[in-house]
Amino acid sequence: MSAGRFRDLLAAEWIKLWSLRSTAWLIGAGTLAIVAFAAQSSLDTYQSWPGFTAMEKAMFNPLDEAFSGVSASLLMIGAGSLGALTIVGEYATGLMRFTLVAVPARHRVVAAKLTVVAVVTLAAGAIISAGTFAVSQAVLSGRGVAVSPGDPGVLRVLAANALLAPVAALTGMGIGALLRHTAAAVVTVCAALVIVPSFFQPTVHQWLNDLYALVPLYVWRTCLGLSELRDNPALPTVAGSWAAFALWPLAAAVVTLIVVRRRDV
């Protein structure tokens, strides 16, 4: 496939993605909501800081105000739903049929769709990660407890926060390709990416810990999202956590490709 031809496919997928009203709502409203949540949380802490005990001040983590577990869950649900709707909507409207008539090589269509969704959600994730960090630390600097990107572990946390979006979006696309039903796909995305992993906790059973370490939200919560890593063999390693972040979108991309190539439209 020539570079020019693939650029045409990318342009077509870009237009289709932004023609969905859900795209602007999920990205625009979602970004504003998460950044506003960080600002409100930081302002609450700023006002309450004088009443904190010495232990509370010693244990305080400024990054928690920037991007909490709630923020991570909202980001993954929004991005995962967007990824699912991107492909489910095309099947529901019949547009996929016309797309595959125009471009019979289905793997090219899937590659273009995956690329566009990954780029858009990565950009959105980066904006959210940087925005929440900037707003929260600007507020907390008034109490002298802000951190900077150069502090240990901060860049890793910011990168992990940003990557939650494309990881969830591509996973959602794989789920959408499998189910081809809007409600079922969105519910499955929420359950697989957020609801079920929220119950995971380190246990004395190492095989369970190893299983949990394959789940993006869990490894973000127990490893990548922490500026100071805990010395606990039950918790995921940094390398293993990044591998989990890579595994889910790669597996979802393969699933999407196989399903689109083998199933009738």
UniProtKB/TrEMBL annotation:
<feature type="transmembrane region" description="Helical">
    <location>
        <begin position="182"/>
        <end position="200"/>
    </location>
</feature>
<feature type="transmembrane region" description="Helical">
    <location>
        <begin position="239"/>
        <end position="260"/>
    </location>
</feature>
<protein>
    <submittedName>
        <fullName>ABC transporter permease</fullName>
    </submittedName>
</protein>
<keyword id="KW-0812">Transmembrane</keyword>
<feature type="transmembrane region" description="Helical">
    <location>
        <begin position="110"/>
        <end position="134"/>
    </location>
</feature>
<keyword id="KW-1133">Transmembrane helix</keyword>
<keyword id="KW-0472">Membrane</keyword>
<feature type="transmembrane region" description="Helical">
    <location>
        <begin position="66"/>
        <end position="89"/>
    </location>
</feature>
<feature type="transmembrane region" description="Helical">
    <location>
        <begin position="154"/>
        <end position="175"/>
    </location>
</feature>
<feature type="transmembrane region" description="Helical">
    <location>
        <begin position="24"/>
        <end position="43"/>
    </location>
</feature>
